Amino acid sequence: MNDVYLSIGTNMGERFENLQYAVTLLKGKEEIEVVHISSVYETAAVGYTDQADFLNIAVHIKTSYSSSEMLKICQWVESELGRVREFRWGPRIIDLDILLYNHENIETESLIVPHPRMYERAFVLVPLIEITSAPVGKQLQRAHDILQQMDCEEEGVTLWQASAELKMMQSVH
Ligand SMILES: Nc1ncnc2c1ncn2[C@@H]1O[C@H](COP(=O)(O)OP(=O)(O)OP(=O)(O)O)[C@@H](O)[C@H]1O
Ligand SMILES: Nc1nc2c(c(=O)[nH]1)N=C(CO)CN2
């Protein structure tokens, strides 16, 4: 089984329901076990800043899918929620990014892992580190070290809901 960390973000429509639906779709796949879901964080938009705040979570899954299959699953979830690609870093009903796939470094035309911008994004690092009690491996240790230097409030990341409802959806409660 492969250990995979995903980042999920949304800033359109019913944001919490969007997160719930995305996790439900992942859980519905026989090849995916949802091990941990972070609390929900409200985060100021990064990149293109003239848009609504996001809700962000990180999810740890175990899966037999390869990394390229996992990318397809993420894109399938996005399309099931009706995501329309408008412009880079623009508003979105849902966005699933693969942060880490085991300890692998992957670089293909369609997939780069670790996610190339994850280490500069507090909205990724805060939920990610929350669900990794011991940062095992170089990549998580780096995420942990960078986060220690960040001022989360200044970065616009605040706890929105330590969501029991979402936590109920993970296999370890
Ligand atoms: N680790 C990754 N996770 C998800 N998509 C990736 C990854 N690496 C490369 N991609 C590619 O990035 C493409 C664009 O993704 P997307 O439109 O979600 O970008 P974005 O979310 O707007 O920006 P960002 O990549 O900065 O998060 C996808 O079609 C996918 O092939
Ligand atoms: N706060 C926040 N900002 C973003 C996000 C996101 O999920 N949260 N996703 C982006 C593209 O991946 C660009 N900017």
Automatic annotation (TrEMBL):
Name any one GO molecular function: 2-amino-4-hydroxy-6-hydroxymethyldihydropteridine diphosphokinase activity
Q: Which PROSITE patterns match?
A: HPPK
Coiled coil ranges: none
As recorded in UniProt, its EC number(s) are: 2.7.6.3
A family per Pfam: HPPK
What Gene3D superfamilies does the entry give? 7,8-Dihydro-6-hydroxymethylpterin-pyrophosphokinase HPPK (3.30.70.560)
Residue ranges occupied by any 7,8-dihydro-6-hydroxymethylpterin-pyrophosphokinase domain in the UniProt entry = 88-99
Q: Establish whether keyword Metal-binding is in the entry.
A: no
Write down the chemical reaction(s) this protein catalyses.
Answer: 6-hydroxymethyl-7,8-dihydropterin + ATP = (7,8-dihydropterin-6-yl)methyl diphosphate + AMP + H(+)
Which UniProt key words apply to this protein? ATP-binding, Folate biosynthesis, Kinase, Nucleotide-binding, Transferase
Q: Which InterPro entries match?
A: Hppk, Hppk_sf
Pathway(s) where this gene product acts: Cofactor biosynthesis; tetrahydrofolate biosynthesis; 2-amino-4-hydroxy-6-hydroxymethyl-7,8-dihydropteridine diphosphate from 7,8-dihydroneopterin triphosphate: step 4/4
Q: What is this protein called?
A: 2-amino-4-hydroxy-6-hydroxymethyldihydropteridine diphosphokinase
Q: Which gene encodes it?
A: folK
